[in-house]
Each structure stands twice: as structure tokens, then as C-alpha cells.
Write a structure and sequence with these properties.
Pfam families: Chorismate_bind. Helix content is 28%, strand content 34%. Residues 1-7 have low confidence and may be disordered. The chain is α+β, with helices and mostly antiparallel strands.
């Protein structure tokens, strides 16, 4: 059974043939009103919808909260590594077979974490769409049938008319932060830091329609759409933070070095050549790859860590990046939680060395929350997949916002780094759909 969720009874499993676009199916389920909480997660060739909460794990700075079928909700303090707190919470799940979905905040790695650090659910109903077929598994037969009927519809979901958000605001404040970071680098405090800026959206947002519009315009490594506890987000992640298969093979894909994309074939080719030969961009990428290698050396079997596709150009919506893959095999005593602890937060969204860069981000910025954190899926068999949260929209209590950053090194200039944030914001800013 690939998608089993057990309580006291066998789950219901259905297969639905569908000619609809998988993206439209995900949007239809998300907008159906059947589920208060849900997560949509796209991997190459596959979309998964996880609806409802059969079980739930919420990690705050002071306690880990769990809710499992057949047991009262509980909360207990934790200390040490937050990854261990999550590992222990799922180890106590009274479900022999489960999958979980959710998010982890950037502050998960902060030296003095505050606020909500992670929110994950084991869903009541899962839908996996591959090759024109939707595989539905659920613990509630009535809900499962309702989902199957939704999937069988032939209509498509209207995606709304976008109202582009102006990305060229807040420049002076951001340039000042970049200049401060460059000075701290020259003072020897760290080698690299990602400095970001928040851009508030000046109208209420239809997050589901924004997901549809944005996904059609982007070519992400992973995409996601979620609503957990009233917090909504959708994004088009350019890179995989950590992926672990059940056999312990772990992979990460650091991207560093950025230029605009979508300017026309001649301009894109010219900018690509510039990206591939710019000493600042090459240095930024090389040190990120080296850091990822060092992180995997700490959790993998000696001799298994390797770099592939070194410094190839990845086209991601409105930008193109230098990218590489770093992989290895986890040591026998290690698990996906150790890989997460080693690789989180992504080096390309924090800096080098990480500890000093994270401390600098705490000085230079307001709390990030999900930005530069991860959307994750994990399973009882040890499998784990996580998307680095960039190129995303966030929405809570009627206020939506975007966020983007740039990697600051000794050769950075405030004007160029501000321009890079505009290029990255343009992956989603033109596709934001207002509420009707």
C-alpha cells in the first residue's frame, strides 16, 4: 500500500481516471471547502493533495504539540535540536503507516528560536495524481467518495485575473542593509549572508488562483500550496533543500548566482554567458556547493558524497541560476532528521558560515517565518522531501506579502543586489490574483 493511513479500520482506496490538468485538480480540491487544512506538493511528474488532519504536530519555541487519533491532544516542553523534537513526536504516532506534510520556519535554526517553528499534519485524505490517474486514499469513506466525485468533473477552475504587484519599492532601506552586510563581511564577521526584503501586497489575495497563475508561468523544482491553521502560502521553489529516499540516499541542490530570464532569446543568452563568467557569481556558487558537501560529510558514509551537474544553469521563472547537485548515502545510524538538521536552513538562503550568517540575519531583518524555511513531506519508511521556500506568497489575517533576498559577498554592490531581489520577486509578483 503506497498511501495508507490506518486508525482502527482499513482506509478506502480509489483510482479515478481524469483528463483534467493536474494543476486544475489540485486547485479544485483546495477550493472545494471540504478541508480546513491542506497541503499541495508537486514533485517532477507528480502532484499530491493532503487534506484534513488525522494527526498533527506543531512545534513552538517552548513546546511540541501533538494530536493523534484515539488520544487527547498533548503538549510537552522540548530542548536540544528541534529536529529531534519532531522525530520523537512522529516516533510516538499510533499509526503504523503514515505520510505527513507541512512547513518549517527559518527560525527553526535560530540560536534563540521564537514563535511557531513547524506545523505538520498526517492527512485524512490523500490524492496523488500521476499519468492521468488520481489515486485517492482516505480514512472516511464518505469524504473519499466526495473527493472522487470532484476529481471526476471535467470542468476547469477559473484562475482569476492577476493584479501585478510593484516590486520597485523599499529600495533605500534594502540598499542600506546590503551596505551594512558588506561592511560586516569586510570586518571578517562572515563570508556571505543572504539579505532579504518583505513586500506587502496592498489588497486581499486569492491564494489558490495565484497558485494556478504562478505555476503556469514558472518552472520550479517543487511547487506548493498550503493552508494550515489559517496561514496560507503558495510558492514555486527553485531548489530542493533535502531529499532522502527510504534507502538513505540524500540529495541537496544548492543554487547560487542569479540573473534575469525571460527577456527574449538573445538577451537571455547574453545574460547567461555573463552569469557563467562573472567571478562574483562563480565564487558565490562554489562556496555554497562546498558548504553543502561539508554538511553531508557529517551525516553520510565516508566516500559517498559527490557533486554532479556542477554549475549548470537552471531556468526558474523570471530568473536563471547556477546550480549543482550534492548527494551521499546516510550513515547507518543516521536518518532523514539528521540530514534536515545538517542542511537546514539552506546555505543559499542563509550564508557562510551558517551560524554567523543566521545571527546577522537576526540583526538585519525582521523575523522571516516561512520565507527561506521549507515545505516538507515525510513518511513512516524514512523518506523525506523538502522544498526551499523562495519565490512564494504568504497570507495571514487578511494581509499578504512577498519576500526575496540576494546573496551578499565582499564584492556585492547595493544597487545590483536590489536589482536581483526585483528579478526574483518578478517570478510571482505579476501573477498575484485579488479576491473577487
Amino acid at each position: 500500500m503506497s498511501f495508507g493511513l490506518r486508525t482502527d479500520e482499513e482506509p478506502t482506496e480509489l483510482v479515478v481516471e481524469s483528463a483534467s490538468d493536474p494543476l486544475a485538480l489540485m486547485a479544485r480540491l483546495a477550493g472545494s471547502g471540504l478541508f480546513d487544512d491542506y497541503v499541495v506538493y508537486e514533485r517532477p511528474g507528480s502532484y499530491t493533495f493532503a487534506g484534513g488532519a488525522l494527526g498533527e504536530v506543531v512545534l513552538d519555541a517552548g513546546a511540541v504539540h501533538t494530536r493523534w487519533p484515539g488520544s487527547p491532544p498533548s503538549a510537552r516542553p522540548w530542548s536540544g535540536r528541534p529536529a529531534d523534537a519532531l522525530r520523537d513526536a512522529f516516533a510516538a504516532a499510533p499509526l503504523p503507516v503514515w505520510n505527513a506534510y507541512g512547513w518549517i520556519a527559518f527560525e527553526f535554526a535560530a540560536p534563540r528560536p521564537a514563535g511557531r517553528l513547524a506545523h505538520l499534519v498526517v492527512p485524512r485524505t490523500e490524492v496523488r495524481v500521476e499519468d492521468g490517474r488520481a489515486h485517492v486514499t482516505g480514512v472516511d469513506p464518505i469524504e473519499t467518495e466526495q473527493v472522487a466525485k470532484l476529481l471526476a468533473k471535467s470542468d476547469t477552475l477559473p484562475s482569476g485575473i492577476p493584479s501585478p504587484v510593484d516590486v520597485r519599492v523599499g529600495g533605500e532601506v534594502y540598499r542600506t542593509r546590503v551596505a551594512q552586510a558588506v561592511q560586516e563581511i569586510h570586518d571578517g564577521l562572515y563570508q556571505k549572508v543572504i539579505v532579504s526584503r518583505r513586500l506587502d501586497v496592498p489588497f486581499p489575495v486569492d491564494v489558490v488562483s495565484t497558485y494556478v497563475r504562478g505555476r503556469r508561468a514558472n518552472t520550479p523544482a517543487r511547487s506548493f500550496l498550503l493552508d494550515l491553521g489559517g496561514f496560507q502560502s503558495t510558492g514555486f521553489s527553485p531548489e530542493v533543500l533535502a531529499s532522502v529516499d527510504p534507502d538513505g540516499r540524500v540529495m541537496t541542490q544548492p543554487l547560487a548566482g542569479t540573473r534575469a530570464f525571460g527577456l527574449g532569446s538573445d538577451a537571455d543568452a547574453r545574460v547567461r554567458r555573463e552569469l557563467e563568467t562573472d567571478p562574483k557569481e562563480i565564487f558565490e556558487h562554489a562556496v555554497s556547493v562546498r558548504t553543502s558537501q561539508d554538511e553531508l560529510y557529517g551525516v553520510c558514509t565516508p566516500g559517498t558524497v559527490q557533486v554532479t551537474d556542477f554549475m549548470t544553469v537552471k531556468e526558474r521563472g523570471s530568473v536563471q541560476h547556477l546550480g549543482s547537485s550534492v548527494s551521499g548515502t546516510l550513515a547507518s545510524e543516521r536518518s532523514a532528521w539528521d540530514a534536515l538538521d545538517a542542511l537546514f536552513p539552506g546555505v543559499t538562503a542563509s550564508g557562510i558560515p551558517k551560524t554567523e550568517a543566521i545571527e546577522a540575519i537576526g540583526r538585519l531583518e525582521e523575523p522571516r517565518g516561512l520565507y527561506a524555511g521549507a515545505v516538507v513531506t515525510l513518511s513512516h519508511d524514512g523518506a523525506f522531501d523538502s522544498a526551499l521556500v523562495l519565490r512564494a506568497l504568504y497570507n495571514q489575517d487578511g494581509q499578504a506579502w512577498l519576500r526575496a533576498g540576494a546573496g551578499i559577498v565582499s564584492g556585492s554592490t547595493p544597487d545590483r543586489e536590489y536589482e536581483e531581489t526585483c528579478e526574483k520577486l518578478s517570478s510571482i509578483a505579476p501573477h498575484v490574483v485579488p479576491l473577487p
